[in-house]
Amino acid sequence: MSRFRDGEVHNSQLSALHLLQTMNPSWTLLTKAELDRERRGRPGNVLLEDILFAQLAKLNRIEQDGRFHPFSEANVRTAIEQLRKPEPTGLMTLNEKTTDLLQLGTSLDQTIEGVTRGRSLRYIDWDTPANNAFHAVTELDVEKAVNHEMRRPDIVLFVNGIPLAVIECKAPDVDLAEGIGQIVTYQRADEIPHLFRSVQLVVAAKPSQAKYATVGTAAKFWSVWKEKEFDDAAVARLANAPLDAAQTRRTFCDGFAEEQAPFEARRDAGRTVTEQDRLIHALCRPDRLLDLARRFTLFDLGIKKIARYQQFFAVRKIIDRVKGERDQHGARRGGVVWHTQGSGKSLTMVMLAKALGLDRAIANRRVVLVTDRIDLDTQLRDTFDACGADVIQAKTGSHLLDLIVRDKAAIISTVINKFEAAIAKGDFKDESTEVFLLVDESHRGQYGEMHTRMKRVFPRACYIGFTGTPLMKAEKSTATRFGGIIDAYTIDQAVEDKAVLPLIYEGRQVAQEVNRAGIDTWFDRVTRGLSDQQRVDLKRKLARYSEIAQGDQTISAIAYDIAEHFTQFWKGTRWKAQFAVRSRAAAVKYYEIFKEMGTISAEVIMSAPNDRSTGDDPAEEVTEPVVRFWKAMMSKYGGEEQYNRQITEGFKKREEPELLIVISKLLTGFDAPVDTVLYIDKPLTGHNLLQAIARVNRVEEDKEYGYIVDYAGVLGELDTAMRSYSALAEFEPDDLDVGHAIIDVQAQIAKLPQAHANLINHFKGVAKVRDEEAYEVFLADEALRKEFYALLAEFARLLATALATSNWANDPKNEPQSRLYKDDLRRYQKLRTAVRNRYREAIDFEQYEARIRKLLDTHISADAVEVVTQPVNIFDTAAFDQAVAEQTTPASKADLIASQTKRTITERMEEDPVFFKKISDLIAEAIAEHRAKRLSDNEFLARIREAAEQVRRPKHDDVPAEVRADEHAVAVFNSLDNAMGGIAGPQGGNIRPVLAAAALQLVSIVKTLKVVNWNENVDVQNAMRNRMDDYFFDVIRDQNGIELAPDQIDAIVDSVLKVARARMA
Fold first, then answer.
1. Taking every annotated instance into account, which residue ranges of this chain make up the domain Helicase ATP-binding (predicted)?
2. Does some domain include residue 587?
3. What is the pTM of this model?
4. Contact of 331 with 462, CB cutoff 8 Å
């Protein structure tokens, strides 16, 4: 019976290589021999020099007086050197400079027929991909920046001999995060950052999953790709197409020979298209890779970003549309892009402006960025500026007119009402068809009268609208003024792609509890856990606000409920909250209550009392407390701009404020990933509602959901589909497909019993259910521990949600279940602590997200969460013996000694790899025999103690006596013996005396030549290497007659220097 193969090489790496070679244009796979020639045998060299030289010569000709001349060989060499010129900057700065060099080319002075001037040289032909050379390399050996160790990325793609993409392949059963982590690690300064200097695309792939990113992208921001221009049939044809004879030889010649027959059999049978195939076909086709690198990567304040698939296809669709058929006035056709909030709409606009500027069919394009609010205008301008696109912001209507008439600026940003002021200055028209108006949040005023005014100034311009929310029914007819929908990316799609987070919604009815009969009950609940004195103090403060009017009672009640909720479940974590209120007056009242309470830090962000331009209600009556508050803020911060900036920056970057109180400002266009909870006490409908709830859906590490706590009944009970909500009745039902985007909190709580059952069932194999030792022994297997931790974390997260939900937490019928869940959380958390101590795992309590830690602190008794003790140094005899004595059984003592000894071995492995590998094997053998019941607990403990003692007090009885006095020489001898122990000595005799003398001499070479920080000094290490090479040739070979090939000597010297760096630096 034939069986499928399950390894990385067969399923992932060879599949990728095959697909890369069947594309058109295809990638030419280089053999290792060809690669060595291209790199001149230098593993630190990441350029394919002969290919690069030939391509630069081919792509570049100098035209003068109707004749074409080649660049001189010296100039081509200079251009190559510019790609690897060392610079004292970090990888991201270097990558940005190199990216500019690749996209813009360089200028080199050359004399032709007596005329000397700068001549432009390009590295890549971006316009005609087929003119470039495309090569793939597998298992590329790259020397680390700080020593001679090698890293070996699975596949590297070269364009004209320059590395542009790196692919890491993984077996089907390996977590893709491992591949992502490898690529992220490779970019560190002490790894192989020089490989990534020119790289534009990085990919981690296994058959069932694949993600991509660019240089510098953190693991949490790697993305999936969903192709819109090709189907699986096209991919399948390439995946199952045969390779020609040359391709087959290249694919299987370097270590993959045994995989050839099974791989070809699978292909001939018609293999199934995988997620890996889809992504590699989508992103690594030469023309697509060049397009991504040129038009769809950018630097945003030094952070490199690459387009997500919705951004890529939206820009492509727009470019196709504006270059297509024109209207009866000769104007280019525009349209509307609907991409949900958080999906990178502003960066899509930047990429579009870049693509318009690069397209040769669009000459002298000008871009006008239009918003309807000053703060959004500034934010959009800042985004373009951060990405290196120079924008001039129109300060007034007259300034806008000047920019249009005289300045002819390439990119202008303006608030829409400045068009009215510009028109009032004169009936000017710009008839150009090369003007592109990118209108942000185009569902609002821009569709109506203001759109008409823009058309008066730019009658033949191309209008492209961008919106983060779906179009209302009433807006769809007027949307045709822009040309209809170009592209849509809904909130549900964004949640599915993990571009934004789902939202958990809870409706609260605090106000209904606050009446004369029920206020004491409500107060008892919100002050539960406080001392009598604290309760009296808070009741006094509450009375100050609740004796005035029913409306103020409601404000007081909501303020105290928010304070209780935030303090119990979020305070002390890094997560923050926004609170949307009805008016400036309400905002100031809430602020004063929070300030009086002192339990959470709150600030208000609002516009000036008489400012009508920001979205705060212009009809609102300005009260004396509001004016007083505003004057205090202006005095404190020195002006409105500083007031806004300091508070919002504090919210984003510092511990305080924890809560931002807002009216309309910051409910749109404000992105702060720490913003996790949105409390609502104001009526919100339509676009305003969708914009507001999206404030808390931004992706961040350890953040799984955003939370909506609704005191205003905005979404009701969420008992029907979102499309039927009265607050959203203005939208078409099909445009509100949010099945994954907004989740009723009750649906989350409903998962709690199953999560609890899953945790209990994990231990169904434990026979002695009342014996904690049995549980700890059961969790000796690392895989079972990891699964236990994941199940416990899921249970804790759901319990935290339930306890934070008013209806569940305060329902008496849930009290028995709540007690059971809390007790089990306490017990299993103690078990988690015990096994982490027993098996001495690294302390990573940070992996427990902040909210779970908050749950344990708030709801579980103090003794439930024990601190995982610090790893004990086995060389600290007293502390180590004390830690062992604290264990209660021989097996637990042995487990602790074994885990800590293994940790020490891991930490010190490079100091003496041979010795520590031997002890590690002894420990592994003892553990295996104990688990197989071939060793009793006491025998297991004795074996482990013996192994630990060898690490603590090594005797080295197995090494020659002459080297035992020098620990460095012992380690070097072990390394030499491991490499040469099987070789006969002089005249066929024992080689060990020769190796002992060599160990002492090699250690002496290091001691003689080392200087401060020599382990980071390449010149010193090369001097050591040369002296050691001489010793091997002069003494080992010539005097002792022991023949070693040069590559054997290089490998031995590398191992000796590795030991020396670990021990003697």
1. 302-506
2. yes
3. 0.69
4. yes
